[in-house]
Write a structure and sequence with these properties.
mainly alpha; about 0% strand; single chain; about 160 residues
Length: about 160
């Protein structure tokens, strides 16, 4: 049985409520192969929605809280999609935070981003956190310095 056909049957059987050992017997594949098929299917279905959620959290919300609330299954999808390291939930979360930190500070999503978009985002955020323009913030300008570092990092990494 070809891989595509076996995968399709495995997914259909799982959706109908069959247990993995029964699926293995039906398609003649190992348990690990069936789990791989099921994981691939979940990733294909979940990834588009997950990307939209990430984008929303980066642009509008608290990205750290969002990532912390994700189940490990979804964290693994993000880890695989954006090639992060991580061997357990905490290290995976830390890797994701580290990767998205600069994008989060600038309010950007990393897919299909241009240098002009990075510049616009920096100027927009700089008006919010610059100590001379915002008297409520500390005069040390730590928020602005973090923003500036993120800007320079993304400009150096892009294109």
């Amino acid at each position: 049985m070809k891989k595509a056909q076996a995968k399709k049957i495995a997914i259909e059987m799982k959706n109908k409520g069959f247990k993995v050992p029964d699926i293995c017997d039906a398609i003649g594949k190992s348990v690990s192969t069936v789990y791989l098929y099921l994981r691939e299917d979940y990733h294909e279905k979940r990834l588009p929605a997950l990307k939209q959620e990430i984008k929303h959290a980066l642009l509008c919300g608290d990205f750290r809280a969002y990532v912390k609330s994700l189940p490990y299954k979804d964290l693994c999808i993000i880890r695989n999609e954006f090639t992060h390291a991580g061997y357990n939930k905490l290290s995976t979360i830390m890797g994701i935070w580290d990767y998205f930190k600069d994008y989060s500070l600038l309010g950007l999503y990393p897919e299909n981003i241009s240098r002009e978009e990075i510049k616009r985002a920096f100027k927009r955020q700089a008006k919010k956190v610059h100590p001379d323009l915002n008297p409520q913030l500390s005069k040390s300008g730590t928020e602005f310095i973090k923003l500036q570092k993120s800007y320079h990092h993304l400009m150096a990494c892009s294109f």
